[in-house]
Amino acid sequence: MKREPDDQPRLPIDLPDAERRRRGGRKRRRRPPKGQPQPELLAQPVMQTCGFCGRRQTVLEQAGVCERCGGLMVRYADDEEILEEADLPAPGPPATRSRWERAALLDDFHANHRKVAWAPPDEFVSDHCFARDDGGLWHMFSTGGAERLTHSVSEDLLDWRLEGHVLSVGQPGSFDADAIRAPQVVQQAGRWWMFYAGDSQAAQSAVGLAVSDDLYDWRKHDGPPVMDGSDPCVLYDPPNARWIVYATGARGIAAAVTEDFAHWQQAGVVFADADRSAPAQDHRESPCVVFDAVRRRYVLLLNLGWSASGDPLNFEGLRPYDSDVDPVPDEWLSDQPYYHPQLGFAGETLRVGGRAYRSAAHGPRNAWRLTFFSLGYTDDGEVVIS
């Protein structure tokens, strides 16, 4: 008997889930790293946002894994809109390397991250940030001088190459007329957004905004600065579906909140350290806030310690890091009071293959280099850097 076209046998991959299971086919699901909450399959796909890199992606699990940075993405009740099948986003461009090649690169970084000590030729690395494009290439933007930002790239976070420079100081009279530094890059609505600190003699430091479609060509955003302060940090707040920008100011660490990067609400000071044993600026340098999805808390990481809170707009107290890293030479600390004796300064947090790491600038003044440490928590929730 001749089959009609509609009667042609279908491959298991083309079958609905129920029919695939009946015929013995199996659909693989990626599970989170060992020790993290195991996912539950949802009845319908949902859109989730990674709290580390800001990537939006469709997942079928209650606790998914970010396809860009490997961060844990936990969905809370009523957080995200359930999507119809027709509304699912198109897949991004294919990666430049196979899955096995990318896995080998991750293994190399896990084994050798403490060996990194890099800076571009004739430059240094101080305040910096990372972004990973859809092809898997890592981009680092850093402060290497006063008049422009440095752009470097790497496939494995171990071997870096200088790509060029982006943005420059503004016109005379602008808030960034004298210096541009401390970049922070996130992805939102299909575009890349860079928050940076600008300095001028005519005004106090302020946080500006620039935008790019490809991480290479940047243009400054029109309008006034986002907020006063320096050393910006950007956090996507999953439970509240909003973005928070933190910055170091004269009275402490302040914050501004937005949902669309166009309308900002100033939240005021969110951390004012009460310890006056050292200059206040030393305790407020380089804020970095991450969302601890397992404990449902926010963790503020500074150069000299950390603080945790259930409210991302209210941190109190500063606790020392638990670290077994060897101390740096005394001469590195003599004229740099913001420098942690073991962990350097200008720390940033990133997820690599499901593991957390903290980067930092290390070295004598104006000869700082990029370094990496492992980041984690004890059973009691204490921050451990090793």
Describe this structure as you would to a colleague:
- The chain is mostly beta strands and 386 residues long.
- It folds into 2 domains: 28-92, no CATH class; 99-385, Tachylectin-2, Chain A (5 Propeller), CATH 2.115.10.
- 8% of the residues lie in helices and 40% in strands.
- It contains 4 helices and 25 strands.
- Strands 9, 10, 11, 12 and 13 form a 5-stranded antiparallel sheet that branches.
- The longest helix has 14 residues, at 99-112.
- The chain is globular and about 45 Å long.
- The N and C termini lie far apart (69 Å).
Characteristic terms for this protein:
386 residues; mainly beta; Tachylectin-2, Chain A; five-stranded mixed β-sheet; 4 helices; 40% strand; disordered N terminus
Concise synopsis of the structure shown:
With 386 residues, the protein is mainly beta.
Cα(first) to Cα(last) distance is: 69 Å
* Count of helical regions: 4
CATH architecture of the largest domain: 5 Propeller
Q: Which structural category fits the helices and strands? A: mainly beta
What do the pLDDT scores average to? 78
Instruction: Tell me the CATH superfamily of the largest domain.
Output: Glycosyl hydrolase domain, family 43
List SSEs in N-to-C order: HEEEEHEEEEEEEEEEEEEHEEEEHEEEE
The percent range for helix content is under 10%
Radius of gyration: 22 Å
CATH topology of the largest domain: Tachylectin-2, Chain A
Broad CATH class of the largest domain: Mainly Beta
Unreliable sequence segments:
1-32, 36-43, 74-95
Number of domains: 2
- Describe the largest sheet: 5 strands, antiparallel
